[in-house]
Design goal:
Family: Belongs to the class-IV pyridoxal-phosphate-dependent aminotransferase family.
InterPro entries: Aminodeoxychorismate_lyase_IV, Aminotrans_IV, Aminotransferase-like, BCAT-like_C, BCAT-like_N, Class-IV_PLP-Dep_Aminotrnsfr
Distance between the termini: 11 Å
CATH architecture of the largest domain: Alpha-Beta Barrel
GO cellular component, one term: cytosol
Cofactor: pyridoxal 5'-phosphate
Catalytic activity: 4-amino-4-deoxychorismate = 4-aminobenzoate + pyruvate + H(+)
Shape: globular
Strand content: 25-35%
Length: about 290
């Protein structure tokens, strides 16, 4: 497929060296999924972006502007199923960490084809790099992701489990993690590090509807090993069951499957999808190449 990147609404690939995203990773991002021209769980993604923007004191980009850019980018790509990454940078400034209050933010939209589904056994290992505790940055999807980058440098499995500085389980590098034991759902507390993923939020809502007991607390690796089922979540995978953590095998998947089916139904509900209308002349132009 044609690579599509919009910067401030214009198709281009180069960002100024003075942009604070380039210099400091001073920005936020969201990774969304488009299915049949529906932007899934957009309201949840945008709400998290807004929470991070307010926390970091980045000036606002109107929601309608984001949707306009996404529609344009999808039209250029000619796709109805896609991964959409949006990035909000604080903008450009002179050298130094300080910035002016009226700095103009930069918006970026990147369109990618949906990856092929993961097949076969899904295995987790333990990351060699983990999280530092910082309650001011926890649950903000900021662009400083060196912890995850370091964690994946020696990855020899499908994913790996990241721990905090106290040795507690926080997440995998690209998603959240859950365990199921005797029908009870377990997931780590994320008050000092990690990101509350959009699909994690949905799973917790669904669990309440299904009347599953939920335990959000500090978890150790042993707590995970003692579970009957393990699964991970993110916006692209949705819910994905785990077969192994290192040599520990997990054969049960009944609760995971129940939650997976319920999440798919939730994603189809009108209130959970933003209907997109890619500009037809863009799409037609791209398809004719």
């Amino acid at each position: 497929m044609k690579k599509v990147v919009l910067i401030n609404g214009k198709e281009q690939f180069k960002l100024s060296v003075f942009n604070r995203l380039t210099q400091f990773g001073d920005g936020l991002f969201e990774t969304c999924v488009v299915k049949d021209s529906n932007l899934l769980f957009w309201a949840t993604h945008f709400a998290r972006l807004e929470r991070g923007r307010v926390q970091l004191k980045i000036n606002k980009i109107n929601e309608k502007q984001w949707i306009k850019d996404i529609n344009k980018a999808l039209g250029l790509a000619g796709l109805k199923q896609a991964v959409v990454k949006i990035i909000l940078s604080r903008g450009e400034s002179e050298r130094g960490y300080g910035f002016k209050n009226n700095i103009k933010p930069t918006r970026i939209v990147i369109i990618s084809a949906m990856p092929k589904p993961t097949v076969g056994s899904y295995t987790l290992s333990i990351c060699k790099s983990g999280y530092a505790n910082n309650s001011l940055l926890s649950n903000i999807k900021h662009c400083n992701r060196l912890e995850q980058i370091l964690a994946r440098t020696e990855l020899n499995s499908d994913e790996c489990i990241m721990l905090n500085e106290n040795g507690h389980v926080i997440s995998v590098t690209q998603g959240n993690i859950f365990g199921v034991k005797s029908g009870e759902l377990f997931t780590p507390k994320l008050d000092k590090s990690g990101i509350e993923g959009t699909r994690r939020m949905q799973v917790l809502k669904i669990a309440k509807v299904l009347e599953l007991k939920v335990n959000i607390n500090k978890l150790t690796l042993q707590d995970l090993y003692d579970c009957d089922e393990i699964f991970v979540t993110n916006s692209v995978l949705g819910i994905h069951s785990v077969d192994h953590i290192d040599k520990k095998h997990f054969s049960q998947k009944s609760v995971t499957k129940q939650l997976e089916n319920a999440l798919k139904k939730e994603s189809l509900k009108e209130e959970n999808a933003q209907i997109l209308k890619p500009k037809k002349h863009f799409m037609k132009k791209n398809l004719s190449v």
